[in-house]
UniProtKB/TrEMBL annotation:
Residues 1-27 form the signal peptide. It comes from Streptomyces tamarix. Residues 137-157, 347-369, 382-404 are annotated as: Disordered. This is Carbohydrate binding domain-containing protein. It comes from the Bacteria.
């Protein structure tokens, strides 16, 4: 459950507030166009386009425009020859007929192309500039070239000379969008500015009789600086604008500066490495007296000709190449003045075969209690493919851009590369965050499902699909548990079920946000829309005309509220459960009022989580069909997000039986028996029942129903809720499945098991102190169907102990003690990624896009596992190089490796029942498992001493020290081993297991 601002800030009280709050997130990326005219920009009526192309970067001897009018045919290669326009620019005017735009590429006529990194350029009509990949609508030669065109101003009169600094923005083009006082705004995006000196752009405008103007700036690709929504107020004369600071009557910022004519150094160390049909190119940074702004990568080889791509870092991932083909790459460095270095030495790589579509996997099908779990946020764990990294609309606002840390950074390829690290720690199951295609402003965690039938492409790579990950894990004897969400979709609905149509006003206030509709372009989170340059395109979601069958109240009328930037907010502009935008048959139409009330299962948790009506057959079938796909791929289990927000009747009638049926059908009865489903039933209290409400308690969801309810699922949910509330806690079913009968193991009774196990929220809440966690945990065990299946962890991506908002920071000794308890007590030990090195201890687990991910508990972990690691068995690292070798020497790493060795060697610690009868000690217990010829009996004490009475006589050996005791009178006393240490005396045991470490000694 995500009650913290995991997805967006807390749920607003009204729709208008919801809109305002969300828009605050997207407004500063960095800034939207100014609140200028209220009418939408109208496409130019011209039937011609004059295309200007910047020459200084390419420095070709000739330039050709190869184009196709929208809906028309392409010119014959290489296209039409362009002519000189003015310094550093060539141009060509072409007739478009009735078309309102064209697709274009540029070439030197000798096989070298600029095709916008394979996407082509999408251009409109009128005057258009293409400079270093950025498109703007202006005439860069106005008043300067052989064919001067007057700058669009109100007339001769007062002059304003504007200098704008982009040194902290990294823009390669700047446009000035302005409105003289009492006059009209220029057409978006404004007029092109000229380079004045390094990091500065300049434009002189004629204001006529006006003495000031409003202004905003943009990079020609949809990124704006409008002074945080207030616009800039600029006077006549010379004015500088730098980092939101306006200086009137300023000195010339370029005065006295020697023109930068020196190119950066030539990139060195260029290396190309092929991986299937992809090539990763790396090189050493170039140096420049005033800073390198980008690199230009030129690729030759194959049948697609020469391709030139601009890159902002020193790594370039080139994907989807031809098979078994040699490709040669050179790199040049560019600075802010446009100086370009000579080409680097060439690097060549030959691609291999395109990875075949992997065969579907099959679950390993073993008892899940044998498999300790390592939990990763896939997008934050390890980056194996930089080509699928995406920052989204919040990349700059969150601060991630400044850290070069896109929210979608880790991927399946990176996880596959580090499976040996996880195996070397001793874990045999990996719980990963949801894999379905997400859609929101900050969706890297996976809980904003948009297309439940599609794996998010931001996680996949050639040769590293989701199926490849499952298969790679299984090949190492490791399971994959997939996080799944049945309760809600993204706020934009669920593709294939229902998607709300937003009233998206594309006037000058909102055109920066509501993208132009692109026929044939489909959002997938990864592919960049060629017209906006966004991977988070939203042109498919909105309409300015009221759609047929609209149910949203007051469609398109102003709400009376304003966004933080002062923009008018309209009804139906943003999804909301109370606006009528969602059909009641498919989505609930209310906000939660009481987290422990019935409405917590039938209303929206948050404005970014559209709550499914899970009692509707259409919704049920949509979700069952989606998750059948992943069962077919061979996943080993599901971690169920927000399970408490769906009625138990719906789980027991629909979703849980559907899982069992599909696993049985595809993989057999044994696999179905061990397909592990564990639910998140968030109960943040320290009592046995959540504030006395059984309906909201974790153990409640492990049981079948106690009586018959209406055949109608919606009515049955209410009947069950009322019945269980009235029945209270006294008459709930109980179980001895977790407990020994004296010293004897007995066959568990799972006849009333629902099919869902749960996360042990009560232990989780009390892990600030291991003794508290132990006593609170066992106090609830008779009310679970079988507590030996409980998933036990200290902290996670949501909370620390006692509902803490920071990653656990109790200290290394306390961590060791918690781990020693988790790995020997009943339940399945689970570790959140990085806890083995106390990663981000004390850092806020999540703060949404209001702070950089690097400062949170969800920071990127890959730097700590950089290098190579090989593990031939669980807890056994054969070799490690680089930073991962250092990581593997950390004290808690050594501790968890040995704990996993001991647990794996003693069956009683994996699947055994337990008892504390006849035992004196703070955290002391006995466990036994007897089945199939195995009889494993162990006495455990953590940190403190213990005395065991009434135990079987025989020879006991401590798995930690190798100490042997012969019991003849049914009593064994063990001295306190010390903080974090433990003793595991095993009857007829295997002896000492593993080597002494920092705690287990």
């Amino acid at each position: 459950m995500r009650r913290t601002p995991t997805r967006l800030p807390g749920r607003p009280l009204a729709a208008a507030v919801a809109v305002s709050g969300i828009l605050a997130l997207v407004a500063a990326v960095p800034g939207a166009p100014s609140p200028s005219p209220s009418t939408a920009p109208v496409a130019a009526a011209d039937s011609t386009a004059t295309v200007f192309y910047y020459t200084k970067t390419k420095n070709w001897t000739q330039y050709h425009l190869h184009y196709a009018p929208d809906g028309g045919s392409w010119t014959t290669v290489p296209g039409v020859r362009m002519e000189t326009a003015c310094t550093d620019w060539v141009k060509k005017t072409v007739a478009l007929g009735t078309a309102q735009g064209l697709r274009a590429t540029f070439t030197n006529g000798s096989g070298t192309w600029d095709n916008n990194a394979g996407k082509d350029y999408a251009l409109g009509t009128g005057s258009i500039t293409v400079k270093d990949g950025a498109v703007a609508h202006s005439d860069p030669c106005a008043g300067t070239g052989p064919d001067p065109t007057p700058t669009p101003t109100p007339g001769d009169g007062n002059k304003a000379t504007v200098y704008y600094s982009t040194r902290t923005l990294g823009w390669t083009t700047a446009n000035l969008h302005y409105q003289p006082a009492g006059g009209s705004w220029t057409a978006v995006p404004g007029i092109g500015m000229q380079v004045a000196c390094t990091g500065w752009w300049k434009k002189e405008v004629d204001l006529g009789t006006a003495t000031s103007m409003k202004a905003a700036f943009n990079n020609g690709n949809g990124v704006w600086d409008n002074n945080k929504g207030a616009d800039y107020a600029l006077p006549t004369g010379r004015t500088t604008v730098v980092d939101n600071t306006v200086t009137p009557n300023a000195g010339d910022p370029c005065a006295g500066e020697t023109p930068d004519t020196k190119a950066p150094t030539v990139p060195a160390g260029v290396a190309a490495k092929a991986d299937g049909v992809s090539v990763v190119l790396t090189w050493e940074p170039s140096t420049d007296g005033r800073g390198v702004t980008k690199y230009q990568v030129t690729r030759t080889g194959g049948t697609r000709g020469t391709v030139v791509t601009d890159v902002g870092s020193t790594v370039f991932s080139d994907a989807n190449l031809e098979e078994k083909t040699a490709y040669t790459y050179t790199v040049r460095a560019a600075d802010a003045a446009g100086n370009l270095s000579a080409a680097s030495a060439a690097a060549t790589a030959t691609t291999g075969e395109k990875p075949p579509t992997p065969a579907a996997g099959k679950p390993l099908g073993t008892d899940p209690r044998k498999d300790p779990i390592y939990f990763v946020l896939t997008a934050r764990f390890n980056d194996g493919d930089t080509g699928n990294n995406r920052g989204g609309s919040q990349h700059a606002k969150s601060g991630n851009a400044a850290n070069n840390d896109p929210m979608f950074r880790g991927d399946f390829k990176g996880l596959v590369q580090k499976l040996d690290y996880i195996k070397g720690l001793g874990f045999s199951a990996v719980w990963i965050t949801p894999v379905v295609l997400n859609r929101s402003d900050y969706d890297y965690h996976g809980y904003h499902g948009w297309d439940f039938y599609k794996v998010d492409p931001r996680l996949e790579s050639a040769g590293a699909s989701y199926q490849d990950l499952i298969n790679a894990a299984h090949a190492k004897g490791m399971k994959i548990y997939q996080d799944v969400v049945y309760n809600h979709s993204s706020r934009w609905g669920a593709k294939g079920l229902f998607v709300p149509t937003v009233h998206g006003v594309r006037d000058s206030q909102w055109s920066w946000y509501y993208d132009e509709k692109q026929t044939g372009f489909e959002y997938d989170g990864l592919t960049v829309d060629p017209k906006t340059g966004k991977s988070y395109y939203n042109g498919d979601l909105w309409s300015t005309a009221e759609p047929a069958g609209n149910t949203c109240v007051n469609w398109g009328k102003p709400t009376g509220a304003k966004s933080p930037e002062g923009y008018t907010i309209y009804n139906c502009q943003w999804p909301s459960p109370t606006s009528g935008m969602f059909p009641k048959s498919l989505y609930h139409n209310c906000w939660i009022g009481n987290w422990e009330g019935e409405d917590s299962r039938s209303c929206w948790l948050h404005d970014d989580l559209a709550d499914f009506n899970t009692e509707d057959p259409q919704v049920q079938n949509h979700l069952i069909g989606a998750y059948n796909k992943y069962i077919d791929m061979g996943v080993d289990g599901f971690r169920v997000d927000t399970a408490v927000h769906i009625p138990r009747t719906t789980w027991n009638r629909r979703f849980l039986p559907a899982i069992q049926e599909r696993v049985t059908q595809r993989h057999g009865a044994e696999a179905a028996k061990n397909f592990f489903v564990f639910g998140e039933v968030a109960a943040f209290v320290n009592d046995k029942w959540n504030r006395g409400s059984v309906n909201h308690s974790a153990q409640f969801f492990t049981w079948k129903e106690r009586k018959e309810y209406s055949a109608d699922d919606a009515r049955a949910a209410l009947e069950m809720y009322d019945h269980e509330q009235q029945a209270g806690t006294a008459n709930q079913p109980t179980s001895a499945n977790a407990f020994l009968d004296g010293n004897a193991y007995h066959a568990p009774d799972h006849s009333r098991f629902s099919g869902m196990h749960v996360i042990d929220m009560r232990m989780h809440m009390n892990f600030g102190d291991a003794v508290n966690a132990f006593h609170n945990g066992k106090d609830s065990d008779d009310s679970y169907n079988d507590a030996t299946y409980n998933v036990v962890y200290v902290d996670s991506h949501d909370y620390g102990p006692n509902k803490g908002s920071e990653r656990y920071a109790g200290g290394t000794d306390a961590w060791a003690e918690n781990m020693s308890l988790m790995w020997t007590f009943r339940g399945i030990p689970t570790l959140y990624y990085g806890s083995e090195i106390e990663f981000q201890a004390g850092k806020k687990i999540d703060c949404g896009p209001t702070c950089p991910l690097a400062t949170t508990g969800r920071a990127y972990y890959g730097d700590h596992v950089a290098g190579d690691v090989k593990a031939s068995d669980f807890s056994k690292v054969d070799s490690a190089t680089g930073q991962v070798a250092t990581t593997l020497q950390k004290p808690l790493v050594k501790h968890v490796q040995r704990l996993n060795q001991i647990r794996r060697a003693v069956p009683a610690l994996q699947t055994g029942q337990y008892s504390t009868q006849g035992i004196q000690g703070e955290m002391a217990f006995k466990r036994r498992y007897t089945a199939g010829g195995t009889d494993s009996f162990a006495l455990v004490t953590v940190t403190h001493g213990a005395t065991y009475t009434g135990i079987p006589n025989g020879t006991y050996t401590d798995a930690v020290t190798g100490d042997t005791r012969v019991v003849t009178g049914g009593t064994l006393t063990v001295a306190a081993p010390g903080k974090g240490n433990l003793r595991v005396y095993v009857l007829n045991g295997p002896g000492r297991i593993g080597a002494a470490g920092p705690y287990l000694k």
